Amino acid sequence: MPELTLVPQPLTRERFAPYGDVVETSGDRSNVMNDLRFERFHDLCKIDFDKGGRPCISIARCKSASALPYRIDIVERHPLGSQAFVPLTPFQMMVVVAPPLASVEASDLVAFVTNGRQGINYHRGTWHMPLIAFEEGQQFLIVDYTGDEANCDVHSLDEVVTLLEA
Q1: Which residues sit opposite 68 in a β-bridge?
Q2: Domain that holds residue 8
Q3: Total structural domains in the chain?
Q4: Mean pLDDT across the stretch 121-141?
Q5: At 9, is the secondary structure helix, strand, or coil?
């Protein structure tokens, strides 16, 4: 059987809609604030949390860079809440997702590449590869669920998928 490979397509709101939200500044969602000194890009994603938990804001810093091609053998999902990753400086990120169904197969995966100024918010239950970065020190603002219950399901794929350059 030939190896399954993924070539990422450019991330757009329309393409990513089945899996989550694209977090980006665009004129259609802005308004002014603070005596017109700032432009605010408001309500960029749907934060969705289960009762019993609360939103948590964190920062993740890459300690070990990844390289392409990248082999994916597991995916994860968060059944109790959405999960957002927003780069704190401009850099491209790779996003690999599958629909928020009860189970996932390697053939369900699709890949996206950001334009360097976009973040993403996974809908609750969306399967995705674990976070990777291509340079040490790259940082992400994370908005996700925290609570007493575990919120991460990990699934081993039926076959390894190789993520290639766009």
Answers
A1: none
A2: 4-163
A3: 1
A4: 97
A5: strand
